[in-house]
Amino acid sequence: MYLTIKETAEYLKMPESEIASLIRQRKIRAVHDGEQYLINRDQFTTHLEQTEKYRRLIEELLQEPVPEDIDIKDED
Fold this sequence. Notes:
Elements: E1 2-3, H1 5-12, H2 16-24, E2 31-32, E3 37-40, H3 45-63
Helix pairs in contact: 1-2
């Protein structure tokens, strides 16, 4: 499925100007049909899946309690 720059910006929750800039930098693949750029939405699937995977991993790590340091001695 192909999206316009505006639709891609909404899909990725980014400003349209940023999407246009990434197209010019060739970081986002797009086709120009003579009037507008069309972007294949499927190219973001892997990126979004990896982002979600890393978000869950970070949440798990933040939930782990900090282990006590065995080198700390109680001075009391």
